[in-house]
Amino acid sequence: PWYQLVLVDRQHELSSDYAPDDLVDLRREGLDTSRPHEKMRRVILSELRAMNRAARRDGVRLLFSSCYRSWIYQRDLFQHYVNQDGLAVAEQYSARPGQSQHQLGTAADFGSITPEFAETREGRWMAAHAEEFGFSLSYPKGEERVTGYIWEPWHYRYIGAAACRVQKKWFGDVQQYLLEFNNAHAAELKKSMIR
Fold first, then answer.
1. Whole-angstrom Cα distance, residue 69 to residue 110?
2. Within a 13 Å sphere around the CA of 111, how many CA atoms are in the beta-carbon half?
3. How far apart are CA 24 and CA 37, in angstroms?
4. CA-to-CA distance for 49 and 133, rounded, in angstroms?
5. Is the pTM here over 0.85, yes or no?
6. pLDDT, tens digit, for every residue of 45-76?
7. Which residues, in sequence order, are bridge partners of residue 109?
8. What share of the chain is helix, strand, coil (3-state, %, to 5)?
9. More exposed terminus of the chain, fewer Cβ within 10 Å: N or C?
């Protein structure tokens, strides 16, 4: 499906009226959230549940801290960070409205939403296992110039397990490279597969 690999970044924006039509409340679906009414797309619910079950079997509690964000919510959040830290600093860690993967309904921030998350049991488990369930780290360490954002060990996006394998094998395990390639070549790849 298009939403799995659509490129959303500073050069590729979602419209202000885009919102998935199948958002579900994660708490109502039995998942742990840091706030009420965190939502993600129903179409990835089975993967979310499977990942949550696997983590629990390993004694790890996954906490969904920030998931779907509307364009308006992202606008207000970005402005808050600009007011707090100034534009240049805010742009290093926060997306402008329309430029956030959260608007897709397939991205989630986990745990503390701090760099220290990487060293928690939850952070280490996600780093080791998220790809098995189709979740890819969006902003890896050392790739700030490529992604345009600081390292965010807490921010994962669902792209599908097959795409995670392709990302790892052919794109240096950097989601941005995979999404840019797909964006540039999706039409010709699709044509070559249709006979």
1. 14
2. 23
3. 9
4. 10
5. yes
6. 999 999 999 999 999 999 999 999 999 999 99
7. 66, 155
8. 50, 15, 35
9. C
DSSP 3-state of 75: helix
Give the CA angle between residues 48, 49, 54 to the nearest 5°: 100
The gap between the terminal CA atoms of the chain, to the nearest Å, is 19
In the numeric block, which tokens belong to residue 96?
């402008």
Using alpha carbons only, give the angle 96, 92, 110 rounded to the nearest 5 degrees.
Answer: 80
Record the tokens describing residue 165, joined without a space. 């394998």
- Three-state SS string across 66-110, please? ECCCCHHHHHHHHHHHHHHHCHHHHHHHCCCCCCCHHHHCCEEEE
Structure tokens at 83: 């007011």
The distance of Cα 176 from the centroid of its chain, to the nearest Å, equals: 11
Cα–Cα distances in angstroms (integers) from residue 19 to residues 3, 99, 123, 179, in the given order: 11, 13, 28, 20
Task: For each of the domains in the chain, give its residue range(s) and CATH number, in order of start.
Answer: 2-193 (3.30.1380.10)
- Rounded Cα gap, residues 164 and 179, in angstroms: 11
Six-digit token pair at 78?
């970005």
- What pLDDT, on a 0 to 100 scale, did the predictor assign at position 193? 59
Report how far apart, in Å, the C-alpha atoms of 57 and of each of 51, 53, 60, 131, 170 are: 10, 6, 7, 17, 31
